[in-house]
Each structure stands twice: as C-alpha cells, then as structure tokens.
Amino acid sequence: MRRENETLYAVIKTVSSSLDLDRVLRGIVEIATDATGCHACFIYFVEGERLVLRAASARYSRFVGEVGFGLDEGLTGWVARNKTPEFIRENALRDPRMRFVPELEEERFQSMVAVPILAKAGDVIGVVVLHTQAPREFDDDVLNFLVHTASLVAGAIENAQLYQETRRRVDALTTLTQLSQALAAVTLREDLYDAVTRGARELLDADACQIYRLDSETDELVLAGADPHDAPALGPRPGGTALVLDLMRRANGRGTRGGRRGAARALWPDLDENAVLAAPLVAGDEQLGVLCCLARGREFTSEDAELLGAVANQTAVGLKKAELIERLTAENIVKDMFDALAAGSADAAEAKAGEARCDLNRPHLFLHVERAPEAGDDVPVWPELAARLEARLRRASPRAFFDSRHDRIRALMPLATDQEAAAERLRRACEQLAHEERVVIGLSDVDRGPGSARRRMREAADAARIGRSLVAAGGAVSYDGLGAYKYLVHLELDEAPHDRYRQSVEELIEYDRRRGSRLFETLEQFLADRCSVTASARALYIHPNTVRQRLDRIERVSGLHLPKEDLLSLELALKLARLHRLRAGSE
To answer: Is 74 left (phi over 0), alpha (psi -120 to 50) or beta?
Structure first.
C-alpha cells in the first residue's frame, strides 16, 4: 500500500511539475513501467477516428507520432470504444482483439493491459498500454493504480491542452495585432496585398495565401497577391465568380462555415475543401474580393475561420483607405494635367499625363459638363450629381479622365481606333445622359497630342456655354455643330455693330416680352431652315399658315422686309441677342 501511495505521489508530482505535455508523458511512462514491472509502456491519443502513439518507453520512442491505427482495431481500440480497462494474461498475439504492430516488437510480449484515459466529460481521449515479456496476472492493485494514473494523465492532458490553446490564442491575437498595425501603416494596394497574404499565411500556419479582387469591368475575380509569390493561381472556374460571392455573402450572414466551404470548392475545385479557408472582403455593401488560405495535410478550425475573417475585415478597410489615397493622389495629378493643358504648357501636361497613365497621343476629345439652366429644383446637389455623371461617363469611356470642380466637370475621353464611329457613339451617349440628368454637355472636336489641347478644351467650354441657351433643359452640343454661334460666343455685345438689324431684333424681343408671343423664335427657325415655311412649321409644330402670319407680324413690328434683307447679318444679330440673353440671365 505504501509503495502504491509513493508511486501515485510520484505520478502527481510529475503531472503537476510542468505544462509541457510531452515531458509529463515521458515521466508517466517511466513511472508506470517501473511501478508495474512491465517491459514497455505506450500512451495513445485519440485523434479523430484514430489512435496515435504520443509517448513510449525509450526503446520505442522513435515511433512516437509514426504508429497509429483505427479505433476499431486491436485491444487498444476495444478499450477506447468500451471505456473499460482490459488485459490479456498470456499468448497476447493469439487474442482475436489483438492487432500486431511490428515496429513495437509485439511478438516479444506475452501479456498486456490497456486502460482508457477519460476526460471530465466522460469522453475517451487516450489509452495507456503496458506489455510484459512473460505471462502476467494483472491483479486489482495494478489495475487500480493504472486507473488512477490514467485519471491523473487525463487531467494533465486537459490542462496542457488548455494551456496550449490559451497560449496559441494569445500568440494568434498578438500576431493579429501586429498584422493590424502593419496594415494600418500601408498606403499602397500592392504593399497591402503583400502584407495581408504574408501575415495571414503566418497567422494560420498555412502553406499559401492568396487574395482575389473583383474586377469592376469584367465582374470576375482576379488574383491580386499571393504568398509565396510563386504559388499557382487557383482561382474560380470561368463564370464561377458569381457563385463564389453569393456563397460567401450567405456564409457571412449565417455566421457558419458551410457557405465558405462551398466557396472554397469553387475557388479550388481540385483540393480537399477542409484544407481551404476563404473569407469575403466586404466594405459596407460593396464586394471587394476574397481572401483564401490553403493548408495541405490538416483541417482548418472554426477559430481559424474567425481569425481569417478578422484579417479580411481589416483588409477591406485597408483597401478602401489605400484606394481613397490613390484616388485623391490621382485626382490631384489629373487636375494638374488639365490645368497644364488649359494653360498650353505642353511639356508639363505630358509629364502629368505620364503620371496619370494618360496617352495624349491617342485620339480623344474633351467634354465640358454643367447643370442645365432649366434643370429644376429636384436635381441632386452638384457633388452628388457630379459623382453620378462621372460614373455614367466612365461606363461610356472606361479610360476617361475627369477634373470635377464646384460647378462643372472637365473630361478627356479617349477614343477607339475607329475614331469617327467612336466619337459618334460617345456623342449619342452624352445626349442621352444629358437629357436624363438635366445637364448641358459640350463636346470638342477630336484631338491628338497636347499641342492643341488648350483650343479643344475651349471648344468644349464654348459648346456648353452656347448649349445653355440652345438646350436649356439639358442636352449635348458638339462644337462642330454650332454653326455661326462659334464666331459670336466670345464677342461682347458692346463690341458688336449697333445697326438696324440689331435694333429690329431688340424690338422683336421686347414685343415677345409684352405679348407672350414667339416671333423671335419663329424668325430664328425660319432663317435656320433657309426661309422654308414648311420646314419651319414642322420644326415649330405649327401650321404653315401660322408661320406666314407670324412672318407678316415680324415685318410690321421690326420694319424689316425679309425678301430684300441681308439674311446672314440678320441671323448673326439674332444669335448674338440669344447669347446676350443667356449671359444676362446667368449674371
């Protein structure tokens, strides 16, 4: 009895001496072997559906971690399944429950005893096995000692596992904190991709980590970064991006791993889904991409999923910050480029264009966008409207460059190689957009190179300026379609001739103001249609006789006799008056 108590005390001392589980197990093996007079001691742990050797007598210690078998095999498996001690007195190899393990030289042993290691919850977490070379009757004292020892070992295992789990979590949180600090310090996307993939791979002890970004033009996931850099790109199958993002979104909403495993299958269809972990990159309601980790030979845990999710959330925030910095930097560069072009500084413009990755030698045209004079009160405030206009114009020309000011937008719109057709497509797109958004868009002629950019930008601004009069409710006006207006737009009224044509036009304007008539508009349309009553009636949506009646009244009010007048001078006077009215209304 004293010997048993001393031995149990030695076991207790060994168990409480360290949180290093391997060291504790080696001590238990030595004590159990010595106390029972057995020739070999083995301790197996339950890992999934297998029993794996975790500690052994010195002679067999080299097989720790190498030897293992199923829970349905051998006396050890029988004890693990039934949770009760069992022994074989002699001829162990003849027992039907026995499983021969040649590495452990079991042909040398006659007797063996196996005792389950039970956790506090009652689950089997391992088995202690002892062998003797000669037949041996294991009495109650030996079995009791082994049961008590197994109970102490169970406590040591649970304490060590708890310690290891706590330490692992602390290490993981420390690493996550360091990664968070590193991500906060990064301002460039490329650097962020490197920091994220390297940090996530180290955090989860993965073989590889990859980050995929959602391409806004193709709506496909594109590999943006990887660690190691030479890891093969194992992205989704063609057309699988929508499935991946949908699965990731549903997985996020449920807080489960099922959807993430489904996304992992779509990302890496040839690999075990348990070896792949994926987390969505989401900022608000915006899907930015997917962060993935791969670990061959082990299964990711729910804790790993939480850690990767935390990294993905920080990555999404970091990406938006980096993109904001890049956008502001790019906007400043583009603004400087437009200012240099407007100033006629070709060298400075080319330098800024190079920084902005804008090819000024490629065919392009300029736009000038302003709110229409008769837009109405329900049109959004300018910053909101400007952002929407830029987004729609970028869809029409994905490589466009914008300089947005407090009341207008200047844009450089590159054209495809078929520049005439491309320019016409862009004009039609601008016409539709301008009507829908109630803005005026002026378009320059097609240009190439920085030398004439100043003139082309002025053309776009002039077209928009005149368009405020011609399409006051919203529309697009091309400079090459301005006709005589392009010669008058910079002419001040005081500098224009004050002849009888100007006096006649002013009398018509005053008559329209008093009577609410449309004589000015009718005369302007009549001259634009080369004095065709029929064409003017069609354009004004009135009967030809009404046109004739108005023309008679125009002659009486103005004192003009249209068949004998200088119609070009009269038309210029009309257009100049219209421009003057526009300027007066904007002052």
So the answer is: left
